[in-house]
From TrEMBL:
GO MF terms held by the record: glyoxylate reductase (NADPH) activity; hydroxypyruvate reductase [NAD(P)H] activity; NAD binding
The protein's name in its UniProt record: Glyoxylate reductase
Cellular component annotations (GO), alphabetically ordered: cytosol
Gene3D superfamilies referenced in this protein's UniProt entry, alphabetically: NAD(P)-binding Rossmann-like Domain (3.40.50.720)
Keywords, in A-Z order: NAD, Oxidoreductase
Lineage top rank: taxon: Bacteria
UniProt keyword annotation of NAD present: yes
Stretches assigned to the D-isomer specific 2-hydroxyacid dehydrogenase NAD-binding domain: 114-298
Sequence ranges assigned to domain D-isomer specific 2-hydroxyacid dehydrogenase catalytic in this UniProt record: 18-329
InterPro entries: D-isomer_2-hydroxyacid_DH, D-isomer_2_OHA_DH_cat_dom, D-isomer_DH_CS, D-isomer_DH_CS1, D-isomer_DH_NAD-bd, NAD(P)-bd_dom_sf
Sequence similarity: Belongs to the D-isomer specific 2-hydroxyacid dehydrogenase family.
PROSITE patterns referenced in this protein's UniProt entry, alphabetically: D_2_HYDROXYACID_DH_1, D_2_HYDROXYACID_DH_3
Amino acid sequence: MTTKKKPKVYVTRKLPDAVETRMRELFDAELNIDDRPRTKDELIEAVRSVDVLVPTVTDRIDAEVIDEAGPQMKLIASFSNGTDHIDVEAAARRGITVTNTPNVLTEDTADMTMALILAVPRRLAEGARVLTDNPGEWAGWSPTWMLGRRIHGKRIGIVGMGRIGTAVARRAKAFGLSIHYHNRKRVNPATEDELEATYWDSLDQMLARVDIVSVNCPSTPATYHLISARRLALLQPTSYIVNTARGDVIDETALIKILREGKIAGAGLDVFENEPAVNPKLVKLANEGKVVILPHMSSATLEGRIDMGDKVIINIRTFIDGHRPPNRVLPFR
Ligand SMILES: O=CC(=O)O
C-alpha cells in the first residue's frame, strides 16, 4: 500500500488548538504558534513552495503575492467569510482555487450587530465607563441623566439582506423594530412575510426614512463607498449607523464629518476603512460617546472559530481528493 504524501499547508495565524491538532494530523502543516502576522515577503516565500495557503482577513493576498506562487500551489483556503483581502481574479488567472468559510459565523456576527444596535442608542459603552472611571463614587440614576433613545418601535434599514442581514432582521424584529431592507434582489416572499419586511429598491429613499442603518453587505468593487457622503447626508439627524461588514462600504471620512457636525446621532463600528489603522478622530468620537468602536470582533466566538477551521479543513481535503470544494469563491464579474 502506498501512503499519499500529505499536502504542504501554510497557515498564517494561530488557530484554535483543536483545529491545529487536526491540521497537524492531516497535513504537512506549517502553523503560526506565536501568532505574529506574516509579512508580505514571508507570504511570497511561502506560496513559492507550499500546496495550500490558509490566510485570514489580516493578510493581503494581492496579485503580487499570487503571481509568485509556484506551480504546485493550487488552493487558497481562507479562514474567513469575506474574501476582499484576496485578489480572487488574479488567483483565477493563475488557476488557483479560492475557498472561504460561510454560514458558520452568521449568527455570531448578527448577535454582535444587534449588540451595537442596542449599545449605541442606549449609551451602553458610556455607562459602562462611569463606575470604572470613578471608583468608589456612585454617579447613577437621576431623571435626566444618561438618557439614550428608545429602540422599540423604530425602523431599521438593512443594507444587504444575505445570510447575516437576514439574521440581523430576525433579531431586530424580536426587539420591536420594523424591518426595511435594500438588496440587489428581493428576498423570497416567505422570508419577507416572516420578517414583515419592506423592500426598498432605492437605497437613497430607504436611508432617508429609517432610524437605524445596519450595513451587512460584502465589500466588492460594487459596494465600495456604497454609503457615500451624498447618501450619508440623506440620513435623519436622529439616526444611527452600524457596520459589522467591511469598513470600505462606508466613506469613513464623510461619516466622521457628519458625526462631528452632529448630523446623525451616532455610529457603531466593528470594521474600519484602513484596518488595522483606526482613524484617531473615531477614537475621539468614541471618547465623546458618539460612537462605539470594536476591534473587528463580530465573529469572534470559540465555537465559530472552530467551525471555521473545520470548513477550511473540509475545503482542503475535498480539493486534494480531486473534487470541487464546497465553499469555492468565484471572482466578481
Ligand atoms: O470578518 C470576518 C470574516 O470575513 O471572516
